[in-house]
Write a sequence for this structure.
């Protein structure tokens, strides 16, 4: 099979292959997931051959992998290195910090609510506002937005205010319903629970899955969860509708991640390499993630 005729689900268990149905995956975004889940807690460096092999089973060709990696280098997230005939890619210092912060959302305790107001007092407010909305902030007027987690790095004349919630009542829930598109996030969580809940029931104790199956299933789990978690506003429970599906999704994520990890990490330790040798099967950072998930 040539690099550009990669088959979706090639070589995967049927239950894992079913996770890919109607689940569009972009190369650069999936590579970011691989780095965040597997590479960042093991030093941040990996051989591109490991990326190619991993992406192949989700339908991403070698050509797309190389193109996406090149774009991530241009974007300042990766740095290329050569060791003999092999190419390795390292997370930049900035990307390593960003990945570590994002990882705390997935593997850490439920995030603490930290209200922030962002005032844009300079040019191009619309461009900045659109970026804030993608990060889960709500637009209050053309130059003012509010959110519940730290604002991303912003250019120029921007003022950020920390705020504390003084009262919690029905008015907060009404405000949240008006300011954020909560049904969109609720549907995304419902889809996550349907897809991965069905997978969870079908694989039971994961005995029928190979170590590679477990790695791919865990990456798909993290990938889909990441795309929701990094965009949803993380409001306090008093601001959310009753029966908010994010709670069920969070429990399912933790349960499946723990069940898949023993075999998945065995595969990483056996097959993944960096510029000095094999990646460690477990590190203090990867073990800390599992420990935090166990106590959710």
């Amino acid at each position: 099979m040539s690099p550009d005729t990669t088959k979706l689900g090639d070589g995967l268990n049927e239950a894992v292959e079913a996770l890919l149905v109607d689940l569009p995956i972009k190369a650069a975004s999936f590579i970011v997931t691989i780095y965040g889940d597997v590479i960042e807690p093991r030093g941040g460096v990996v051989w591109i051959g490991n990326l190619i092999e991993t992406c192949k089973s989700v339908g991403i060709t070698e050509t797309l992998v190389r193109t996406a990696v090149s774009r991530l280098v241009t974007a300042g997230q990766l740095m290329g290195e050569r060791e003999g005939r092999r190419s390795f890619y390292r997370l930049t210092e900035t990307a390593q910090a960003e990945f570590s912060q994002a990882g705390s959302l997935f593997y850490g305790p439920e995030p603490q609510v930290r209200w922030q107001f962002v005032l844009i007092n300079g040019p191009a407010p619309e461009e900045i506002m659109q970026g804030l909305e993608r990060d889960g902030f709500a637009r209050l007027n053309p130059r003012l937005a509010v959110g519940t987690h730290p604002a991303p790095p912003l250019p120029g004349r921007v003022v950020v205010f920390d705020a504390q919630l003084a009262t919690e009542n029905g008015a907060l829930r009404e405000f949240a319903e008006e300011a954020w598109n909560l049904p969109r996030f609720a549907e995304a969580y419902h889809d996550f629970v349907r897809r991965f809940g069905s997978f969870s029931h079908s694989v039971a104790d994961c005995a029928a899955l190979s170590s590679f199956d477990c790695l791919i299933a865990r990456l798909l789990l993290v990938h889909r969860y990441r795309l929701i978690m990094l965009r949803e506003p993380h409001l306090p429970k008093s601001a959310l509708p009753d029966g908010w599906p994010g709670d069920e999704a969070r429990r399912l994520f933790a349960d499946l991640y723990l069940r898949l990890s023993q075999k998945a990490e065995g595969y990483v330790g056996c097959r993944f390499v960096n510029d000095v040798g094999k990646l460690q099967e477990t590190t203090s950072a990867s073990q800390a993630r599992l420990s935090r998930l166990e106590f959710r």
In short: The two ends are 44 Å apart (CA to CA). Strands lie at 45-47, 78-83, 86-91, 115-120, 138-141, 144-147, 158-163, 273-274, 277-278. The chain has a mean pLDDT of 90. The first strand starts at residue 45 and ends at 47.
